[in-house]
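REVIEWER CHECKLIST
Item 1: Sequence provided? yes
Item 2: Single chain? yes
Item 3: Sequence as submitted:
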Amino acid sequence: MRLISLDQIDVPTPTPESVYTQSLLGETYTFNGLKTLLAHADYSKAGDRHAQLTAKTEKNREAARTLLSNLTLEHIYQNPLTDGRGQIDSVMRVNYSIDINKYQEIKQFTLGQLKNVFLKEDGVEILKIGRGLTGVMVAAVTKLLDVHELIYIAQKIECRSQARTLLGARGTLSSRLQPNHPSDDLDGITFLVYYGLSLASGDALLGVNPAIDSVDNVSKILLHLDGIRKRFNVPTQICVLSHIKTQLACLDKKIPVEIMFQSLAGTESALTAEFDVTVSLLDEAYEKMAALGPLKDKARQFMYFETGQGSEFTYGKHHGIDMTTAEALCYGLARRYDPFMVNNVTGFIGPETHLDNQEMILSNLQDHFMGKLLGLPMGMAPCFTLHSNITLEGQQMATQLLTAAGANYYMDVGLNTDRMLAYFDTSSHDDQTLREIYKKLPTAEFHQWAMKLGILKEDGSRGAQWGNTRLFCKSEEEYQELLKAVPFFFGVETAGSRPSEKVTREVRSHHSIAREAVYSEVDVELLKRLDHFIEVESQAKTLLQHLNSPSLGGLISSEARGKIKDSHNQVRVVVAGGLSAAAVNYNIEELYPVLKDGLVAHGLKLGQPILSKYGRVKLAEAIASQTSDELIILLIGERPGGEAEASRSLSAYLAFQLLDENTRRLAASFSGNEEIKFEYSVISNIYSKGIPPMEAGSVIVEKVLQTLKFKAAGNRLENG
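Item 4: Structure as written out by the authors:
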């Protein structure tokens, strides 16, 4: 497939915003601009409420929907949404790469008429219409649909994709096996792969999110996954979900990058500044995979994108665009590359975007519908974190509805608990349960493989070897050795397609302990015994504000500004509660002395350490901007995972401030972000079963020295 260059995509010139007025039951409602109208027509969600975009009342919302229903597709086409400078950004431009002939046929349809067409037509015709729609048009019609309609229309649409396996064929339900390990331990990854395969998971992908995003580490994991796949002749494909630049470097070294991954955002500023990606870089990756990818002669598709409502708002780069519309723009961007997989992770961010089960479920149904309408092979990962009010039961409700709507695949996160990313997703038990309820099979290739091993029967039900992880081990000794690498695992016993009651109670008990860690408070006296910490308040005044509004935790309060002054230090340590103050309390006493002694031993100029009880990651930038410190080491409690000790996991964010013009210019060139001011390196999973805190102190010192020596952090340090 040939990619059309951006300058060849026609986009109408932005005009002054329209004012929309609607009378409803004797009351008049006015909406200034298309962005406002789109936002007010949507269901109320936390992210849009925080951004002050949502309707204040149900009547206001229905007035917006009535107006939207009567707008033509041509009106939306002629009014492209702009960024904060009033410009058409690259993501919006890509969304205008449509089937212009189909658009010309339908442009006089109102959105209400378009909805009626979708309800009447079959999936083939709906897909043809979808090719003539921009992401904004798709978001607009989505806001007119109720739950039944989101499911009814989506289930008519079939979006297939082909690598070694064929995803999305009617009657199938696939899974992406995600064997993440907190320290990328290969034995631990191996155990989780074997466990998932024994439960008939992984036909879409064997995909690891790496704890360390470096070329060497990602290469090591890819080669390991490739070895497992070949050893057992598993009909699937492999991927390590590192940054696209890391994967491209691996591909250059002829490492088997079978599927190329990247997270996307719906505005150029979020995509570039926060995800360190440009459309030109995505184009480069697509073209290189088409020419050099290991599956170029087998796969029709080879790109994999991950999205989810809310990232643009979370980073403050939504430009007044509501979460649903920004998500549709992500899909318009993904469509450019005809991907093998798209995975939606709405719910991953937390309560600042989706507060409860209903908000998460509605957004997932919207996202699934929008992606399929734009022709994408949609996998769904209705997920949650412990600092939200979303629960496992809400996640299960979402998967039942999404299976009825025709989702292509779900995630397989062992026992629903990702110990590395500290969030909660669907599991292999969920995948099999849904297959049996809805009479679905895995991909045909994988099904044949699983039948040969006795894992599945011909009708897709469980075979005699289903759940037998030892099936892939040469001996009991090998099995026990692998099991040691996952001390956070709660058992393999099953009851039907579900975990046994004993395993379930163990899992849920640990979840309950971890959720409590969210509401812990920093031990201020402990910190003050360790050193002369300055206590600096963020703009979050209470724990609840801190949990639900992360932007407040990233800003210094006006009262605290006088406590820290411009001092031009090389390094300053900042400690913040983050999402688990318990992580600070459990680790800081061992970590901090090693860290400080190491920094002093290397003769670095240190600023006085800072403590912020209700601080978030972006607080590092606020402090560095005020002090002109070159590097901030932010020690912060990460969101709790699903294991009691993992709820005490600390991370170190090294925020490197680009103070001199030459360094900033090099960083801008590497990232494609002309406005870049900071680069980050992250050392995560600092706790007893990850990186022990004393060892972490030394690891952080070494990373600080590298950063200051090479004047680079993050991807530029690792791969530059």
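Item 5: Key structural point noted by reviewer: DSSP finds 31 helices and 22 strands in the chain.
Item 6: Recommendation: ____
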